[in-house]
Write a structure and sequence with these properties.
The chain contains eleven helices and 17 strands. The longest helix has 17 residues. The protein is 28% helix and 21% strand. The model has no long low-confidence stretch (mean pLDDT 95). It binds pyridoxal-5'-phosphate (PLP). The site of pyridoxal-5'-phosphate has 17 residues, from α11. It catalyses: L-ornithine + H(+) = putrescine + CO2.
Length: 375
């Protein structure tokens, strides 16, 4: 059950009578269910959701009711949340650095699969996880060959991954491999490259893996106007490199949830080439510190604004000078204080990363059937 009723109104109607002072996060459960169904039809393996992308109860329960059978979790709090909302789903604990207490919490809560990228962390797991647990060695491609290397924080080199995989098998746990291409990756070939490397690592280790977790990283497809099928095809084709094909798992965060939300922020002030917003990089727009803004539409009291555009630098509301979007926004020339900028595909990394710095960061979630705006 959703906490929020689905309101029969449009984004424009809602905002034009809105009295609150913060951002509005519009959620469409039907768009989320449709995206999940697209993954379930096209991916050809177990679809799980990376909880960190949007740890909202209504999101998790919409996915659970849509038939999602697994979650990628990274902390005891995410484990408890996933268990509460979707008690029978499999939990994959894929943050490769954990305290002993965190490992024990995961074991007590029946975590089925654990990722690892380092010897000490592997020994920590082998001493604690049950015989039937899966241990997935997370690897990264060498920087030279990588299509995407978003400052890889985690991942063993392929030679190390092969040695660790052999150790997992020898210790009697279910050996597996995993990787994460990096977020918002629009090139299907990146997955192909990683799947091919996974086959080489398993061969080098002399281990047959039953499952391969190809991570997340899929883009917000509406915003980037990309189809998902080429990604699924690239992954399936690359599986041919395995003598015995493993079952696939994916763990999209953004790819599942981004398109199911829009974020509306209000213009506080227009000053020459600049605008000041009610939300910024300490709040719902934190990703725009380092990424381009998704497409958006601007709403005035009278309706959606059209006409010629010009770039304007967009500042957030706090007094910190880093609180500014990386790229200027191409905004209609005529703008007023009080106008709303409605960003599309804002379901991922918004609510989970918002702070209350300087007294800002209030985001109200509103559930609608569709997200209609001239993006
Ligand atoms: C964050 C994360 C994901 C999800 O990433 P997206 O880019 O949102 O799809 C998947 N797997 C792991 C291990 C992650 O850390």
């Amino acid at each position: 059950m959703l906490h929020q009723p689905v309101r029969q109104t449009s984004i424009a109607e809602f905002l034009q009578s809105y009295q609150g002072g913060g951002s509005v996060h519009f959620f469409s459960p039907s768009l989320l269910a449709a995206k999940l169904a697209e993954f379930q039809r096209g991916f050809g393996g177990l679809v799980t959701f990376a909880v960190k992308a949007n740890p909202t109860e209504d999101v998790l329960s919409t996915l659970c009711h849509g038939g999602l059978h697994g979650f990628d979790v990274a902390s005891p709090e995410e484990i408890a949340l996933a268990r509460k909302i979707c008690p029978t789903a499999a939990l994959h604990y894929n943050n490769p650095v954990r305290t002993r207490a965190e490992v024990e919490f995961g074991v007590a809560n029946g975590v089925a699969s654990w990722s690892v990228d380092d010897w000490d962390e592997l020994e920590k797991l082998l001493a604690r996880v049950p015989e039937d647990a899966e241990i997935a060695v997370r690897f990264k491609l060498p920087v030279e060959g990588a299509a995407y290397n978003f400052g890889a924080k985690f991942g063993a080199t392929p030679p190390l991954a092969a040695m660790m995989l052999a150790r997992v098998a020898e210790a009697g746990r279910k050996p597996s491999l995993t990787f994460h291409v990096g977020t918002q990756c629009v090139d299907p070939a990146a997955w192909g490259q990683y799947v091919g490397e996974a086959a080489a690592i398993a061969a080098e280790a002399g281990v047959t893996i039953e499952r391969l977790n190809i991570g997340g990283g899929f883009p917000a497809s509406r915003n980037y106007r990309v189809e998902m099928m080429p990604f699924f095809t690239a992954i399936k084709e690359a599986l041919g490199a395995f003598p015995v094909q493993p079952t696939l798992i994916c763990e999209p965060g953004r790819g599942l949830v981004a398109d199911a939300f829009a974020l509306a922020v209000q213009i506080k002030s227009v000053r020459n080439d600049c605008i000041y917003l009610t939300d910024g990089v300490y709040g719902g727009l934190s990703e725009l510190l380092s990424m381009p803004a998704p497409s958006f539409a601007v709403l005035s009291e009278k309706g959606w604004r059209k006409g010629p555009h010009r770039p304007r630098k967009a500042f957030g509301p706090t007094c910190d000078s880093i609180d500014v979007l990386r790229d200027p926004l191409e905004l209609p020339i005529y703008l007023d204080e009080g106008d709303w900028i409605v960003f599309r595909s804002m379901g991922a990394y918004v609510t989970g990363v918002t702070t209350r710095f300087n007294g800002y960061g209030s985001i109200e979630m509103v559930t609608l059937d569709t997200l209609d705006a001239p993006f």
